[in-house]
Amino acid sequence: MNKRGLGARLRATALRRGRLWVLGLGAVLGFSLTAAIAQQRDAHHTDDGMPPPVATFSILGYDPETGEVGGAVQSRVFTLTGVLTADADAGVVATQAIVDVSYGPKGIALLKQGLTPDAIIKAIWESDPDPVPDRWTKQGRQFAVINLKGETATFTGPKATTWAGGKQGKYCTAQGNILAGAAVVENMVKAFEETKGHLSLRLMAALEAGQAAGGDTRGMQAASMVIVKKGAGVWLNNDTVLRFQVDDQENPYKELRRVVESWNASRAKGGARAVKPGQ
What we know:
Elements (H helix, E strand, L loop, with lengths): L2 H40 L13 E8 L4 E8 L8 E4 L3 E7 L5 H10 L4 H11 L13 E7 L4 E5 L8 E5 L2 E5 L6 H12 L4 H14 L9 E7 L6 E2 L3 E7 L5 H17 L5 E2 L4
Parallel strand pairs: 10-12
Antiparallel strand pairs: 1-2, 1-8, 2-9, 3-4, 4-5, 5-6, 7-8, 9-11
Helix pairs in contact: 2-3, 4-5, 5-6
């Protein structure tokens, strides 16, 4: 074979190898992209078209010194609207896992009627008609209640995704599902009881302690906190002491911690104060 023929053959071989390399790279990139899309889809969809369970851990707490009551929650979902329902004339309700958002308002209404948290859990659970039993069963619901005395109750349905459960402490209750284990809620209660300072700092410490114990096994994405007390919010006739929400963040704790500390710093300087008649 002459030099010209040999050169042409070598160029053809190199071209074929180049095409194979490009095809191989394309296959790898395509697989990676497909996997990434599938992972993102898993966080927001299920195969049956239903939304994913709100794999969550939450803490409800009361401060007997201030009379404030509140809750905080973290989950691997885009946003946490509907999980915490708070009313300064009643208390706080958390509803998660196979969520029925109506549990929040129903719980508040029953608190205003004077029912105990235990009685409210029983009444709401038993009256749930379980309208989507095959795909969104009440057997997977999880919810908790705290009243204005700091009395609590928590419930985890038998079909809530493991690990799922709750733990009650002094003036608090922690609960969660799809967690690393029981240590998550145990650490949350311990942190709440041992942390000093404003209720917001105690709720924040509880969330962070839950995450340190493994938290939601799917990861982090959103967090929120609410605290209420009659007439204790900023300005006039405002019962919301604070309401913070962090959506779609790689580390929602970092931003929630920043906001909580900033709010407390402002409060220490005389900001975030209520306006009361006669003052």
